Amino acid sequence: MNKAILILVVLSITQSVFVKRSNDPTKAVFTQLEAMEEHELGKKLLDTIALQLNNKAPLSDIAKMLQQLRENLILNQQEADQKHAQDEVDCETEIYQYNRRIDYASAEITDSTTEIATLTSKVEQLAQDVDNKKIQLDILNEQETQLTEQRANDADDFIKFEHETENVIEAIEVIFTKLSSIQPEQEVVQILTQLNQIGASNPILALMQVASTFSKDQLNNVLNKLSEVSASLEQSLHDARQSEIQAQLDYERLMVEIESQRESLSSAREDSERQLKDNEQALDLQKKRKEDATDELNAATSGKEQKEGECDGWRTQYAADTEHRQQEISIIRQIEEILATKLKNVKVYLLERSSS
């Protein structure tokens, strides 16, 4: 029973307050002040104003305090605007510099890549040229060796031929002389005795034995044949000597030509080797250039991304600070306006606020 009565009393009081608040002309002010309570600065300002009013502080002091706060916020916003403008200039300048570095590094990479391709092809060609000239020199040296060996063999063969031919000619001369000494009336025994002194195994002895039986015409015919053979051998020996001389001259001429070709090939190979070395060094420089440009491109790209992130962070913070600061300025202006026009309502609100 008592509980039911208590509930009815509470409901009655609540309804009366609600009706009073609904019909209260200060409702709009209270609603506005309650909204300010949701903001940290608004709550602090209302706390401060309540304290000042309780301490009987002049309203002018409160107004001056609010004015100073508002002006400080406006000044802070102006400084923030200036800093933001300078930050934007710095961002634009630094990002522009990063873009220039990126463009330059990219151009360096493109150019060095082209140079690397060209130099790589040239190095391969020069290396092949050096190898080819080395092969040609080896062939030339082998040719020289073969010609020298052949010339030595031919010279040995000539000396052997010359020696043998001279011996044959000499033998024919001996035979011719001996046969010429045969006389039909001369005793054969006397001639054979002379020939026998040359040597028991001398074939001339046998020839003389046969020739001693020839008639005069037959003997003359043999002597003529021997003369022809001797002359033919003399001519062959002469021709062989001329051929040997010519062969030696041809060999020496070939050696001069080979030496000239060797010098030319050696000089050309040395020139190709120098060019190869120069191009290999140039290729290494271009590879280093590309490597450095790649490092620069990565560094500039990373720096640009980092700077863009930093600038975006500044913009986000600036926008948030500006919005927060504008809210605070708006709250101060609302409080200033309410204090200037509805001070009584503020006092009532603060009184109810402190008692609740």
UniProtKB/TrEMBL annotation:
Enumerate composition-biased segments (Basic and acidic residues). Answer: 262-292, 304-313
Q: Does the keyword Ligase apply?
A: no
Q: Which UniProt keywords apply?
A: Coiled coil, Signal
Query: Which branch of life, at top level?
Result: Eukaryota
Q: Does the keyword Transport apply?
A: no
Q: What start and end residues bound the annotated signal peptide?
A: 1-19
Q: Which residues form a coiled coil?
A: 116-150
Q: Where is this region: Disordered?
A: 262-325
Official protein name in the record: Trichocyst matrix protein
Which organism encodes this protein?
A: Paramecium pentaurelia
Q: Taxonomic lineage of this organism?
A: Eukaryota, Sar, Alveolata, Ciliophora, Intramacronucleata
